[in-house]
Amino acid sequence: MQAVFDLQAFRPVVNLSNPTVTNISFTLYAILGVNEKTQILTTFLWLRLYWNHEFLLWEPDQCDGVTRISLPVKKLWSPDIIVYEFVDDDVSQACPYVYVNHTGHIRWDRMLRLVSACNLEIFSFPFDVQNCTFTFGSYMHTVRDVRVGPALTFKEMSGNSKRYLETSGEWELVEILGETSILRFGIDEWDIITFWVVIKRRPVLYVVNLLIPSSFLMLIDILSFYLPPHSVDRASFKMTLILGYTVFLLIMNDLLPSTANGTPIIGIYFSVCLALMVISLLETVIITNVLHNNSMKHQEVPHWVRVVVLKHIANLICYRWREDGRPPSVTHDKPSEGQGALTQPARRTSAQNPTSNEGTAAVAQLQQICQHLSELRAHVISAQKESELHERWCHVGYVLDFLLFRIYLLLISCYAVVIISMWCVWISHV
Which of the residues 131, 193, 281, 357 has the least number of beta carbons within 10 Å of its own beta carbon? Predict the structure, then answer.
């Protein structure tokens, strides 16, 4: 063997014009991590290389039937196969031996912790599928010296990887594809083999921790429309809900991927949800202003508002209210029977005893009572007018609130249909 070891620096072929064929296969043993911010995929591979050593030949009959031996890899020539996407130091455990067959066929098994660059697409996060590339080829030897090819079919590599994949974390393997090609750089050409490792994220963690709580908060925001619009509790409730949703986004921010390539659709989903909550609060502010500000100023409902809101919009949204709930109409010039009955006897007493002190006192008392009754009547009429105005503005506010609630439900429904459709289309293409 010493003569062979002395030729370790030379490519082991009798005729140097013949290239050394290196066959490559690997088994994806573990997916250690995916870093979206730095666009790096970390995996652990069982790598296997095959090539022929034309100087290592013997007859098994002359060597006690020995057909295979192990030799130190440092004593033999080995192809300089690298992964072009490798971006970190190789900290894998070294395998110092190779198997050599009596025909000169060498097998070298390696354990490779591969930290590779990968163009990650996170738009459909957390329902995303990543397609990362592993390109194997010689670093120095061109296509005239070293040729590469797959040792197994790509389907067999994919099946072996699915069988031995140990990690059951966030990612799962979909399939492994590949092809051989020629890499041209200037006048030189390198033979390479490219593997596409397709992995899919398991979205259960993000659905439970992000989507479901957000959907619950949006549902509570919708149900808050059933609070009385003339109460200020609805506005304070919605502001508290927005504050809680903002805190929720800050807490869950670490779970969202961040890259300069784009924004994931789930980030857009959260932003739109927050915007819808703000729109809901704005609607409450508008209705509160209609109900309180205009009714407190005792302004009459304009004619165009009664026609547009109370007639057309109310019919459009099928809004009805009880007619008997309206206050009765009050006349301003017709005195009550009680008032006339009280004033007539006063005049009769004055006519019968014009000089009597007792009659004069009675007349004064009756006149004072009539004045108080007139003031009470005026106050009741004013209160009835204010109540009627307030009820009319309440009808306007309730109709507008019902209309804006329908529009809000329509926006949320369309938004939910779009989001669900996009994710269903993504799932159908996986």
Answer: 357
Q: Strand 188-201's sheet: what is its strand order?
A: 81-83, 129-138, 188-201, 171-185
> Could you tell me if residue 113 is inside a domain?
yes
Contact 238, 288 (CB under 8 A): no
- Give dist(CA 191, CA 33) in Å, integer: 29
Give the three-class secondary structure for 112. Answer: strand
pTM recorded for the entire structure = 0.70
- And the tokens for 379? 């106050």
DSSP 19-39: PEEEEEEEEEEEEEEEETTTT
Amino acid of residue 196:
W
Q: Give a yes or no: residue 346 inside a domain.
A: no
Q: Over the stretch 111-128, which tens digit does the pLDDT of each residue have? A: 999 999 998 888 888 888
Which of helix, strand or coil describes residue 354? coil
Contact criterion met (CB below 8 Å) for 77 and 16: no
**Domain containing residue 96:** 2-202
Q: Which of 110, 190, 184, 149 is nearest to 21 (CA)?
A: 149
User: What are 55-85's pLDDT values in tens digits?
Assistant: 988 899 988 889 999 999 999 999 999 999 9
